[in-house]
Design brief:
The complex is a heterodimer.
Chain A: H1 2-25, E1 36-37, H2 48-53, E2 61-67, E3 70-82, E4 88-93, E5 99-106, E6 113-115, E7 118-120, E8 130-136, E9 154-156, H3 190-212
Helix pairs in contact in A: 1-3
Chain B: H1 2-52, E1 80-84, E2 89-95, H2 99-103, E3 106-108, E4 120-124, E5 142-146, E6 151-162, E7 177-184, E8 194-206
Parallel strand pairs in B: 2-3, 4-7
Antiparallel strand pairs in B: 1-2, 1-5, 3-4, 5-6, 6-8, 7-8
Classes of the chains: A alpha+beta, B alpha+beta.
Chain lengths: 213, 207
């Protein structure tokens, strides 16, 4: 009897442990939410090419956010359209919502926009949708979220604009690859729930049979 | 003693109910996403047909208001629908491979090409739900990726089992390919040690 009791207890504990493992697996990775205002746009060390090619654009900087020690200038952008060649056109507005400059971006592979922190492909944006664009301090290019792994969309410079001559960044775009370092884990938590439930039911069945005998 | 017995039954029934509920929720969400996508696709076709027609009577009374698009897709539709006729699979493809995404369909692996582009479109899903039947795929089988404006067909050219660190399967190879990723072995509780890879090359596309 005591042996059966110990076995049943062990089974129940195992079931609960499996279930808690399944719950723990459901924790979600979220959009980088902690954005702390640490400086003003005047304190940003702008990339020289950025200043040369878009002298007015920095006037549309809304704020500076600090993520993992890196400063990002945030811009408010209004989606215009996706060009047939895949380039995306945005109107960048200032804090009074006046149009400062229309920029054309060449997104990197897999780059998406974020509306209410939800990833949305550029092709599914609607005209007048507003998103935030981020420029990391000292670099020339736009990201759609302020994370170090985000690759920067290249800015298409109009033909009549001055030609940039300096190397764009101290970190190459290749270093900003968002491709995962391991293949995704595709084992869901549901089998654990089923297994834990079955084991617990078996434990209950064992106790019931024992009691009746 | 009887209390312990009751506890076993209650915990077991609760866990099994959670399992069944999660399965049902995932299936309902999958069907809902597929239906929303098909609706968005029909709207896209209708919009393109209207755009193609010559304007004969630009009556101000029927013109859309300025700044108000005459057509909009429903918000937050899936990126695409993945169809594999050979194994009767139809599953929405959303962005990312988080657990909630994979419970309701397949997910586009971050950093890989978007559906419709010329790169390597990598899609992952649970091997204990939607992608379990990938084990029955054979070389030459047809896979369809249904997008809002067209359908891209692929033909399976390679089936392989790799280590989780073999991310080279996600790399662009200079041509439009589709890579499906799921865990291997197919019958395994917990994180399986390998990954099953299906590689398919673009065949043709249709509207």
């Amino acid at each position: 009897m005591k042996k059966l009791y110990v076995m049943s207890m062990t089974t129940a504990l195992l079931g609960l442990a499996l279930a808690s493992t399944a719950v723990a697996q459901q924790l979600q990775e979220e959009f980088p939410a902690e954005r702390t205002r640490t400086a003003t746009c005047d304190d940003i060390d702008w990339n020289m090419d950025m200043l040369r090619n878009h002298p007015n654009l920095i006037g549309a900087c809304q704020e500076v956010v600090l993520v993992d020690g890196e400063s990002w200038a945030r811009f408010d952008a209004e989606f215009v359209r996706v060009e047939p060649d895949g380039n995306v056109i945005f109107n960048v507005n200032d804090d009074r919502d006046r149009l400062i400059e229309t920029v054309t971006l060449d997104p990197t592979t897999g780059q998406v926009a974020y509306i209410d922190d939800r990833a949305t492909p550029f092709s599914q944006l609607r005209t007048t949708d507003r998103i935030s664009l981020y420029v990391p301090e000292g670099q020339y290019g736009f990201a759609t979220q302020p994370v170090a792994q985000e690759r920067l969309a290249t800015v298409i410079v109009p033909a009549n604009a001055p030609i940039a001559v300096e190397p764009t960044t101290d970190r190459t775009l290749a270093q900003r690859d968002t491709r995962p370092t391991v293949l995704p884990t595709t084992a869901g938590p549901l089998p654990w729930l089923a297994l834990g439930g079955l084991l617990s039911m078996l434990g209950g069945l064992g106790l019931t049979l024992r009691r009746r005998s | 003693m009887k209390l312990l017995e009751i506890m076993f039954w209650i915990v077991g029934a609760t866990l099994l109910a959670l399992f069944a509920g999660a399965q049902a929720w995932g299936e309902i969400e999958r069907q809902s996403d597929v239906a929303a996508f098909i609706q968005a696709r029909q709207l896209t076709s209708a919009h393109e047909a209207i755009q193609a027609q010559p304007v004969t009577d630009p009556s101000p009374g029927t013109a859309p208001a300025i700044g108000q698009p005459a057509w909009q897709t429903p918000a937050h539709t899936a990126l695409a629908i993945l169809r594999i006729p050979g194994i009767a699979l139809e599953v929405p493809v959303n962005f990312g491979t988080e657990e909630l995404v994979l419970l309701r369909g397949a997910g586009l692996v971050e950093g890989t090409a978007l559906p419709g582009s010329n790169g390597n479109v990598a899609i992952a899903a649970h091997r204990d739900t939607y992608f379990r039947d990938l084990k029955d795929l054979a070389l030459g089988d047809r896979i369809e990726l249904v997008m809002l404006d067209r359908t891209q067909a692929y033909v399976v050219t390679d089936l392989s089992v790799v280590e989780p660190t073999d991310v080279h399967v996600l790399a662009d190879i200079g041509e439009p390919v589709l890579t499906l990723v799921t865990c291997y072995p197919f019958y395994f509780v917990g994180h399986a040690p390998k990954r099953f890879i299906v590689r398919a090359v673009a065949a043709e596309f249709s509207i």
